[in-house]
Structure formats: structure tokens, C-alpha cells
Write a structure and sequence with these properties.
The complex is a heterodimer of chains A (223) and B (232). Chain A is an alpha/beta fold and 223 residues long. The relative contact order of chain A is 0.19. Chain A starts with a strand and ends with a helix. Chain B has a domain of 134 residues: Rossmann fold, CATH 3.40.50.300. In chain B, a hairpin with a 2-residue loop joins strand 1 and strand 2. The N and C termini of chain B lie far apart (41 Å). The mean pLDDT of chain B is 94. Classes of the chains: A alpha/beta (223), B alpha/beta (232). Chains A and B meet through helix 5, helix 6 and helix 9 of A and helix 5, helix 6 and helix 7 of B.
Chain lengths: 223, 232
């Protein structure tokens, strides 16, 4: 359960919202507050006013895995192995446990062959997969993806979708500009000017957006 | 006007890019997976990288302009008007086309990403280069901003426009389709004949083709029109 009460932070203004769905898609125009909402739900930022609770706890007390839009700007280490290992290492986990967590995460994401590579030698898509593996290596209770698919081709985006779908995380909060991706979520939040204008199942939310370009292209041709 | 690739080859580490073909006047879409070599080809066509083997021949192309994927790397001035002037353009013209009137004195870095992309695209279009190269012009834009960018591109009347993109929802009307896969550039040909052989076609086009429709172009509206015709 994600519960937001009396939240005011920068342009965000969300009086009251409770979402009890696993896969939550956050959509809306550029500059509507999506990344800000994700930062607050991850505990990266503290709200100026109001509160957010994930699984009944403040976000800082929840294990969150974060995948940003520009992995280039968030990758810290030069070797892929060390980047993925950073999550358990920062938690002071023993070396053997760290090693098995890294290999398991690389396996899940499908990048064991990249472990010894330098991060600088990777393509943009591979960097996104490394960032996803690093997020998964901490056994996150909540997985947060900030437009992680914006710079991915269809094949890589599909792999990210599968990993996220199969992840044991209690919640996945995924901000995307692909309405076809958002249509597969359990719940959709549509933000505009810092406010949640629509929320509910994809059916409910996209019914309200049918006259806009925020409508899945496949629904447009199939229905 | 024409740009010809003659047995082009370029390599970096284990990656090799190869291609042959000719880009005539009109709008070309080069699609392909991330890391397949789209940006490298854009840099080669812009003359910012040199091919190891083969040649790029420009016929009647006197001016070339490349827009990078991340517009923040283009910015050279501390105001929007100054940025437009740095392209040798009248700020009023640029601001009007980019729909940024009233933002002349703002810091370009205070614009949203969509606004910044619109600003650089407006500058490039007003410069009206013979060869315009756009690397991922739609990435990280919302659908409204993508539509605006497509509209601006469709207004371009002459010259060669090459769009490098993996976009799969909002696309402009194009004249020809190319694909790069694992470093090999392949011409699919002119639209609409090229559409059925386009491997990276967006899902809505694939669906339309599967239903037996023959879209006249690659936009969502083209797919819907074609489907309406088949459904009667």
C-alpha cells in the first residue's frame, strides 16, 4: 500500500491518495511532477509538507531500488561488477553474499557477460540494464523506474518490462512516456501541474484521456 | 541534392559500422536498436567522424546541421534570445516558431526539456540546412511535445532530413525508411512500399499490417485510416 496524505512539495499538491496495486504507472506531460513524486516515494527527497508511507513505513525505512532516466549520470563505478555490487557493499554485506547477489542480479537481467566490462564501453541500453541490475541487487521492496525506457529500443525495453514483472518487489512505481507500457500496469496515475488528475485501472484512466495523445497507440488501432 | 554512402566502414573497439546507399531529398527515418550505430552514422554524415574505408559523397549539399540527442550540449548562451542569435537568426523568428514568446530573457537551462528541444529544433529549421541530421529528436519528450516536433519537421519544404530514432508511438510523415542492426545499415526503400519490410515498425503499424491494411505512411493516423478502409 502506498499512502500519500496532505503532500505539498515544490509543484506537487496531492491532498490524499491511497494506492493498493503492485505495478503503478505514473504518466503525464513533461514538467508535471512525475520525477519529484518518484523522488519522494524513494526517500531521496523529504516532502516539505505532508507524508508518504510505503508498506506502512516512511520511504527512508523501505528498501528501494531506483533506476533513473539517465544511467550515465548515476553510475558510480567504472566496472560493471562494482556498480552492481555497490548496493550490497554500501549495506556492509559480507563479500560472499555480495558476490552471489551481484551474479544473481546479472543473471536475472541477462548481463552476466558484461560483469568484467568497463561501464564506459557499454551502449546506452546496456547501461540501463546495469542500473536495473544494481537496483535489483538490493532485494528492493519497492522498485522505482524514472522513464527508464525513454532511451531504450523495443527489445531492451521488453527485457526491462519482464524483469520488473518478475521481480519479487511488493511495489513497482514506473514513470513512462510509453502509454502502451503504462496500459499493462495494475494502476495508472496521471499527473498534470503537480496534481493527480486521474488514477485507477488503465481502463478507467485512459477512458478519461481518450481525446488526448496520452492514449495507448495499440488501443487506438485495436479498439 | 543527394548524399551517397559508398562501402562505408567505421570501427571502434569491437564495433563495426557498414553501409551503402543514397539519401535523396526528403525525410528519411533511420531506426534500429540502441547501440546499433545510429549516432555514429549521424556523426559520420555530419563530417564529425571520418570513415576508415569507403566514402561519403555530398552532391549539392552546401550546409549541414546536426542536432544532438541532448539539447543541453548545444547551449552556448545564457539567454534564450542570445541562443537564437548565436545561430545567426533573429530571436523573434525563433521564439515564434518554438512557441517560446515571452521567454526571450530566460536562461535556456530554465526551460523544460521539451521546450529546449523545441528551441534547438526551431533554430536548426530556420537555418534551413541542405542536410539536417536529428539524433533522437523525440526521446524523453511527452506525446504533445513529440507531436509539435513532428509538425515542425513536416513543414520543412526542401533539403535532406535524416531522423535517427527508436520512437514507436509518435512519428512524422517520412519518405524513406532505413534500419541499422548490429552496425549494418540497410535501406528498406520508399514509403509506403517499405513499410511491410520494416522490422522495427511500431506496434500499431504491425497490427495494421497483420489486419491486411496498407497504411500510406507511418503515423498512427495513417494506420487508423488504412484500418478504416479495410473494415469498410
Amino acid at each position: 500500500m502506498i499512502r500519500i496524505t496532505g503532500l505539498r512539495h515544490r509543484l506537487l499538491d496531492i491532498p490524499d491518495l491511497a494506492v493498493d496495486a503492485r505495478h503503478i504507472a505514473v504518466i503525464g506531460p513533461n514538467g508535471s511532477g512525475k520525477t519529484t513524486l518518484l523522488s519522494i516515494c524513494s526517500g531521496i527527497e523529504e516532502p516539505e509538507v505532508g507524508a508518504v508511507r510505503l508498506l506502512g513505513r516512511p520511504p527512508s525505512a523501505v528498501k528501494v531500488g531506483w533506476v533513473g532516466e539517465f544511467p550515465d549520470r548515476t553510475l558510480l563505478f567504472s566496472r560493471v561488477y562494482d556498480e552492481i555490487a555497490s548496493t550490497p557493499r554500501f549495506r556492509h554485506r559480507p563479500c560472499p553474499e555480495t558476490d552471489s547477489a551481484v551474479r544473481a542480479a546479472a543473471e536475472v537481467v541477462g548481463i552476466p557477460h558484461l560483469l568484467d566490462k568497463k561501464v564506459t564501453s557499454l551502449s546506452g541500453g546496456e547501461k540501463a540494464l546495469v542500473a536495473l541490475a544494481a537496483a535489483c541487487a538490493g532485494d528492493p521492496e519497492v522498485l522505482v523506474l524514472d522513464e527508464a525506457d525513454s532511451h531504450l529500443d523495443a527489445v531492451t525495453a521488453e527485457r526491462v518490462r519482464r524483469v520488473v514483472q518478475e521481480s519479487p518487489a511488493n511495489h513497482v512505481i514506473w514513470c513512462t512516456q510509453s502509454m502502451d507500457t503504462a496500459a499493462a500496469a495494475d494502476c495508472v496515475l496521471f499527473l498534470e501541474n503537480g496534481r493527480v488528475c486521474h488514477h485507477g485501472t488503465p481502463e478507467e484512466v485512459f477512458a478519461a484521456l481518450e481525446e488526448t495523445c496520452f492514449y495507448p497507440t495499440l488501443w487506438r488501432v485495436c479498439r | 541534392m543527394r548524399v551517397e554512402l559508398i562501402d562505408l566502414a567505421f570501427s571502434r573497439d569491437a564495433f563495426v559500422l557498414r553501409g551503402s546507399g543514397a539519401f535523396d531529398e526528403g525525410v528519411h527515418l533511420v531506426s534500429g536498436p540502441v547501440g546499433s550505430g545510429k549516432s555514429t552514422l549521424a556523426l559520420l554524415l555530419a563530417g564529425l567522424l571520418w570513415p576508415e574505408r569507403g566514402d561519403i559523397r555530398r552532391h549539392g549539399v552546401l550546409t549541414t546541421q546536426l542536432l544532438l540527442q541532448f539539447p543541453e550540449y548545444h547551449i552556448t548562451s545564457s539567454t534564450v534570445a542570445g541562443e537564437a542569435a548565436s545561430w545567426g537568426l533573429l530571436p523573434e523568428d525563433v521564439l515564434a516558431l518554438a512557441e517560446l514568446s515571452g521567454r526571450a530573457e530566460d536562461d535556456p537551462f530554465h526551460l523544460s526539456r521539451g521546450e529546449l528541444k523545441r528551441l534547438t529544433l526551431a533554430c536548426a529549421l530556420l537555418r534551413d540546412p541542405d542536410l539536417l541530421l536529428l539524433d533522437e529528436p523525440f526521446s524523453s519528450l511527452d506525446c504533445t511535445a513529440k507531436r509539435k516536433a513532428c509538425g515542425m519537421l513536416e513543414e520543412r519544404e526542401a533539403g535532406i532530413t535524416i531522423i535517427f530514432s527508436h520512437e514507436r508511438a509518435v512519428l512524422p510523415r517520412v519518405d524513406a525508411i532505413w534500419e541499422i542492426e548490429e552496425g549494418v545499415l540497410a535501406a528498406r526503400g520508399s514509403v509506403p512500399d517499405a513499410i511491410p519490410s520494416w522490422r522495427h515498425a511500431p506496434p500499431y503499424l504491425r497490427y495494421a499490417l497483420e489486419q491486411g491494411a496498407r497504411p500510406a505512411n507511418i503515423r498512427l493516423s495513417d494506420a487508423r485510416e488504412a484500418l478504416c478502409r479495410t473494415r469498410g
